[in-house]
Design goal:
It contains 14 helices and 13 strands. With 451 residues, the protein is of the alpha/beta class. The protein starts with a helix and ends in an 8-residue tail after the last strand. InterPro entries: KR_dom, NAD(P)-bd_dom_sf, Sc_DH/Rdtase_CS, SDR_fam.
Length: 451
């Protein structure tokens, strides 16, 4: 679907009009292309006094080919691809001044689509209330920067456990490589938690899913098709699943990526058993399960019939639970496995006329919250993504005024693309992301809804 306003704004006449009238100004976003460097320029790396992550982060970024600069003497002409700050040393509110001292002189030095990343300690792990207070304050900083810096700049807060292990460091590297790259173009204002856990760095970061068997449901079109393509590009053997009615489109996607197609209605009583038997027979396991299949049946609650309610809950939530139960009971998801579900911003903020859909998507968040600790002992991570306004054939049907509001009411002033959701799920699926679990990451351009 073409965003004609964004195309006009990027023309000469459009830019002049936007500046004169103060209209939304959608920037060109830096998206990932194989072979791109991690950043388009050097990174400015700083730390609060006593920061525990600045040294390992510096080594990880250097190994990733990033040129590092240290604070002090930032010149007006300097341009940075990222500002990275280790705030783990801030132990009370007076220490927050160090954030100003780092970001103030560098605020205008970021390149378009630059990246801001602040590293902190989970407030629940802090030694005393003052430290927890200061660490919680970091969310206000990063979310405000995401709304303030503009030009496609994203800002994130990454909480890293102080009780980490080798898996923590590997997942920190994976998270750096995702959030600093063009893969995270439409992800901003998020808080990502990295705990302890098993994680394996790939031999080649350009193929971080090499050899992994990945199941993608709802793979025939839209976000699901983009998912299949991105995961295959990253080295996965993709099992693409969709309903029989979408068989032709599903076969096209599977053939394009060299994957396999499975036609199956996930709401059928025998669907979990049939899917488990297929995976066991053809692959012997499934390393990553991506629950993307979903439907909408919109009506206000007072006008909604029971079938609309039941269908949405069954497809979007209950079928995920049944599939998970069957695959886990048969131990087809091995240690190091990944469960990734697609929620929605509607599950966070609600949406008029979508009580059934919002209920199902909030339930997906509940699934993550409950399963992540339960499966930690088996070495299986559980996460979700929550897309905002994504340009698909479904959003193309939305009335034009509502559609334009959805596009503009975020820090990027534009809708996201299916590939933005796919790249985020890809990162959560990486073997290197094993210590990233229990997260719900919004892919919404930092939408004003639910912020």
């Amino acid at each position: 679907m073409t965003d004609r306003y964004a195309s006009f704004v990027q023309s000469g006449a459009g830019r002049a009009l936007v500046k004169r009238l103060g209209l939304p100004d959608p920037p060109r976003l830096r998206r990932h292309r194989p072979g791109d460097p991690l950043l388009p320029g050097p990174a400015l790396l700083g730390a609060a006094t006593g920061g525990r992550l600045v040294e390992p982060v510096g080594k990880l970024l250097t190994a990733a080919g990033v040129e590092l600069r240290e604070p002090g003497g930032v010149a007006p002409a300097d341009r940075f691809g990222a500002l990275v700050y280790d705030a783990t040393g801030i132990t009370d509110s007076t220490g927050l001044r160090q954030l100003y001292d780092f970001f103030h002189p560098a605020a205008r030095s970021l390149t378009p689509s630059g990246r801001v990343m602040v590293l902190g300690t989970p407030p629940g792990e802090c030694a005393d209330p003052r430290e927890a207070t200061a660490q919680r304050a970091l969310e206000g900083l990063t979310r405000s920067i995401g709304k303030e810096f503009g030009r496609g700049v994203t800002a994130q807060l990454v909480h890293v456990t102080a009780d980490g292990d080798a898996g923590t460091l590997t997942s920190l590297e994976a998270t750096l490589r995702f959030l600093l790259s063009g893969r995270s173009a439409y992800v901003s204002g998020q808080v990502v938690r990295i705990g302890a856990g098993s994680a394996t760095a790939p031999a080649d970061w350009d193929r971080p899913l090499d050899g992994q068997v990945v199941l993608v449901t709802g793979a025939a079109r839209g976000i699901g098709a983009a998912l299949a393509r991105v995961l295959a590009r990253d080295g996965a053997r993709v099992v693409a699943l969709d309903v029989p009615a979408a068989g032709d489109a599903l076969a096209d996607v599977a053939n394009e990526i060299g994957g396999t197609a499975v036609q199956l209605d996930l709401t059928a009583p025998d669907a979990p058993t049939r899917l488990a038997e297929h995976l066991a027979t053809r692959h012997g396991r499934v390393d990553v399960v991506v629950h993307n299949a979903g439907i909408t049946r919109d009506k206000t609650l007072g006008r909604m019939d029971a079938d609309r309610w039941d269908q949405v809950i069954d497809v979007n939530l209950s079928s995920q639970e049944r599939i998970n139960d069957e695959l886990l009971a048969r131990e087809l998801i091995p240690a190091g496995g990944r469960l990734v579900s697609v929620s929605s911003i509607a599950g966070i903020a609600g949406n008029r006329g979508q009580t059934n859909y919002a209920t199902s998507k909030a339930g997906v968040i509940g699934l993550v919250d409950s399963l992540a600790p339960a499966l930690r002992g088996r070495g299986i991570s559980v996460n979700a993504v929550a897309p905002g306004f994504i340009e698909t054939r479904l959003t193309a049907r939305i009335p034009v005024v509502i559609r334009e509001a959805g596009r503009r009411m975020n820090s990027m002033s534009q809708g996201g693309l299916p590939v933005d959701v796919a790249e985020t799920i890809g990162w959560l699926a990486w073997p290197a992301s094993g210590a990233v679990s229990g997260n719900v990451v919004r892919v919404c351009g930092q939408s004003l809804l639910g912020a």
